[in-house]
Amino acid sequence: MIHTLTLNPSLDYIAECPHFTLSATNRTTGETIYPGGKGINVSLVLKNLGYSSITHGFIAGFTGQALVSLLEQTGLQTDMISVSEGLTRINVKLRSDTETELNGIGPYVSASSLQLLMNHLEELVEGDILVLSGSLPQGVPADFYATVIQKVSSRNVRTIVDTSGQSLLNTLTCHPFLIKPNLAELQQLSDHPLTDHETIAGAAVALQKQGARNVIVSLGKDGALFACMDGSVYQADAPSGTLVNSVGAGDSLVAGFLAAYLETEDPVNAFCYGVACGSGSAFSSSFVTRTEADALVQSITPRKIR
Fold first, then answer.
1. What is the pLDDT of residue 96?
2. What DSSP designation does 155 have?
3. What is the rounded CA–CA span in Å between residue 237 and residue 223?
4. DSSP readout, 8-47?
5. Regarding beta strands 10-16 and 89-95, do their DSSP bridges make them parallel or antiparallel, or are they unpaired?
6. Are strands 178-179 and 158-162 parallel, antiparallel or unpaired?
């Protein structure tokens, strides 16, 4: 079974407002509320690709109950833990001449709630996969993802990590199966400018040397770079298309990689399928479908650079 962990999920309020003007009354031309959070996005894309999963995380207040209701309407299986302090955050995504985001804080998570989550994760067994994604809410220590990975790895559960900064670095010695920083997140961890594929590859391999087995660096419109566990490094351009919505593209890449790897156990093929899924979501107002991903992957040719 695939499990996704989103410690700080959200309601994503998408507002369409052409020519937004500061210090003025603006009116939307369209608005939608989606369940949000990186692990939740992975579960939603996996569902589109034909894979079931269980979503874990924390919720709080009436916004948390609304989030669970939306997830259940999509058909996702949830195992959310309710906490008493704060509210599940609302993230505002403003689509105007440019895209602007205003992200909420989220609830406070106590040590007892963290222990309850660890108890829930005791249900994972050998062969399961756990995707740990996104930022940490208030009260959660920076090494919590590493603590989780240490716990589940003892039962031969494979882990995928998509977070940033010290929280990501702390997981490396636990040897996650895959990590997926974007370029900005990778640059934050590097002591020299990442200006081309060679320098990006060097920074990705450096994370492998610290313990990650596979590293995918998402590069937005420029595709992605893949440092494979066999020591090779590949780059793949994104297929051509028109950007509609960049939210969740990186999460779609993770879901696509995971789905394809489960089917073929070919990491390079999985990398290409991940790029197709990330691009497909970016080209759509919703998440990529299996049909769209299958079509897009035909135009992706990985280039070995190491």
1. 87
2. T
3. 4
4. S-EEEEEEE-TT--TTS----SEEEEEEE-HHHHHHHHHH
5. parallel
6. parallel
- CB of 98 closer than 8 Å to CB of 126: no
251 flagged as catalytic: yes
Question: What's the confidence (pLDDT) of residue 47?
Answer: 97
Among positive and negative, which fits the CA dihedral 273, 279, 282, 285?
Answer: negative
Which two three-digit tokens encode residue 18?
């052409």
- Of 12, 97, 251, 294, the active-site residue reads 251
Instruction: Provide the whole-model pTM.
Output: 0.92
pLDDT in tens, 210-247: 999 999 999 988 999 999 999 999 999 999 888 887 88
**pLDDT tens-digit profile of 285-304?**
889 999 999 999 999 999 99
d(Cα 80, Cα 59) in Å, to the nearest integer?
6
β-pair partners for 159: 130
The pLDDT of residue 191:
84
Q: Which two tokens stand for residue 236?
A: 């793949």
Residue with tokens 């919703």: 286
Residue 242: per-residue pLDDT: 83
- Rounded to 10°, the helix 38-48/249-264 angle is 50
Which stretches in the chain have pLDDT values below 50? none
* Exposure string over 245-258, b if 16+ CB within 10 A, otherwise e: bebbbbbbbbbbbb
Residue type, 20: F
